[in-house]
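Sequence in, structure out. First:
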Amino acid sequence: MNTAPSSPKATRDRAATERAILDAAKQVLVEQGFTCFGVNAIARAAGCDKQLIYRYYGGLDGLVDALGTELSHLFGEQLEFESSRPLENYGEFVEQMLLALLRTFRASDLLLRIAAWEILEPSPITRRLAETRGAALMHWVRSMRGDLEPPEEMDFGAINAILIAAVQHLVLSAHATGGFGGVPLDSDADWKRIEAGLVAMVRAIYPPSSLGGS
């Protein structure tokens, strides 16, 4: 039995092929959607034999898991990048969370498309990608929130779900039609207006005086 370790060149070639396959998977998703997301289409886009997808990832399910892990890392890194200032109360945490989500979805066409497909084309693949993205978001929430607490009398779970849904829908509408409800969403100035509106809403719902802020 040959137990000799792989050569450095073989290791590099495998790493390059795995990278090409992952990049091709993202390319197929962006350009063709989940209806065309399969081993054959990904292999064509990657310029490799489809057997390599089975060899390196165990098939489409393993590739989806690897893609979900990569996207969750990118999602988490983008959230971290958008979240820098220290937080003094729960309202500031919600404010920063919404602004970070808004900017993160705007920055990634792929994340935005996946969010749309989760609603329009639910499938085992979209559910698995949603779960990995949700785990990344929850990790970020726990690290950012710390011991900041919302007002006890509020159903903050429902309130925050509505606000997050509004953010996601606005970005999806901007991508599809360039605006929402007569409000243009084309330029940075348009989005500054939306961000100011979000901040005003959060501060009205979670006023600093009710949260121990100054």
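Second:
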Amino acid sequence: MRRAISRHQSLLLALFLLSIPAQALGVPQPYGLGVAVLLFLLSTVRPERVDREPLVVDPPVRGRWRALNSPGTKVPSHGVRLYGQTYAIDVLQPGAPDPEGWGLDDPEAFPAFGEPVRAMAAGRVVRVVDGQADHRARRSLLAVLYLLIVEASARQVAGAHRVIGNHVVVDHGEGAFSLSGHLRRGSIAVAVGDLVDAGAVLGEVGNSGNSSEPHLHVQLMDRARAEQAAGLPFRWRGWEPVPGDAEAAPAQDRAVDGVPRTGEEFVVAAATAGTDPRP
């Protein structure tokens, strides 16, 4: 039941938001304040949490990166369980340009933009969403507030695909699906039905969807569609923290072992082909 309700979260939220000005202006409508409150409460329903051992998979990138919003620091990593994000992680490359003007920088100025995004394990592509533009970065205070308050709300009403941006979902079997989001428009190199090996290029890092600057958002979940999914924990093999990184922390201090913490820089030199996603 909770998954069925969460599938229509965007519609429920849109109906609630439309009811606010209608209530204030006294516009006749088929439901009153009580129903409006019910719509809001239903829009907050999330799928039940799934308890599983972390799956061991390959990192989706190569080279030097920095982790943000990581389950290595807290769970849920993005503050919500919405769209299967309980254990999601964002990664970007160090070396972003200094903000200019209003902080609306071209995505091409960021080192992560256009970097290959790889499959974390072997599987079959079950969902591809492309065509959304790579917008300018939002890095000034005003631009970030606009992103969080105006853009995020509008994208939420439009649906999960507008929040996640261009993305690929891969079915790894045994109820595990990976999602790679915010991909560069036109860069997706796979189609629904394709079989991919661990390390296969799925697309490139972009700045589509609800993104403040070019970065990759990845997560594991138990359904192919993020609207109905619960997040699954995972561990990455083959990564190393950058020596001397001030944000580094011992494994015992991590909320989830096997992934870099928020703010921690790490290096992926190579990956093991043919990853088995089972623990």
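Remark: Residues 55-268 form a domain with the Glucose Permease (Domain IIA) fold (CATH 2.70.70.10).
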